[in-house]
Write a structure and sequence with these properties.
Radius of gyration: 27 Å
Strand order of the largest sheet: 1-2
Helix content: 55-70%
Order of helices and strands: HHEHHHEHEE
Oligomer: single chain
Length: 167
């Protein structure tokens, strides 16, 4: 395992040197810059997708567990694209393709890396959830306490230099 940590950067460097030798150094530089920009765009897109889905889950009261699997995979692909080298770029492209993403998840032994299925998790308690379903409700119960606060602020008494109070 230590050898992989040592050899991987060397292989990435070698891939860029080979790209520059087979084409031009400018082409290798353009490849690294364009891949980095695409990586930044992928990370930005994944971030906005996560925020939008979290807001929708907050409105609906249900969290989709597959939400992070696809969007986090896109963010990881973006990070791999930012790292200079052809090996990381190739791996990032494989991660961006949904069938390969599921295959890589199975290869790595990850559970729950689904590309098409949707799982939901309710925020309510199981007993209340079952009761709401038997009543014909939507299964989401939000309970809480509130305290009414006076909306008009109290007047603050100020004291002048002579000690006389004024309102």
């Amino acid at each position: 395992m230590r050898w992989i940590a040592f050899l991987y950067p060397m292989m990435e460097l070698w891939s860029l040197i080979e790209l520059g030798a087979r084409t031009t150094a400018g082409a290798a530089l353009v490849w690294v810059l364009v891949a980095g920009l695409i990586g930044l765009a992928a990370i930005r897109f994944a971030g906005t997708q996560v925020l939008a889905r979290l807001q929708a889950a907050q409105r609906e009261g249900a969290l989709q567990q597959h939400l992070l699997a696809g969007d986090m995979a896109l963010a990881i692909a973006g990070l791999l694209l930012i790292a200079p080298g052809l090996i990381s770029d190739s791996l990032a492209l494989l991660i961006m393709i949904p069938p390969f993403r599921g295959w890589l998840g199975k290869l790595m032994g990850l559970r729950g890396v689904k590309t098409g299925a949707q799982f939901t998790h309710s925020f309510s308690q199981p007993q209340a959830d079952a009761h709401a379903r038997s009543e014909g409700g939507d299964g989401v119960i939000l309970e809480g306490e509130f305290q009414e606060v006076d909306v008009t602020p109290a007047k603050i008494q100020r004291h002048g230099p002579d000690g006389a109070g004024r309102a």
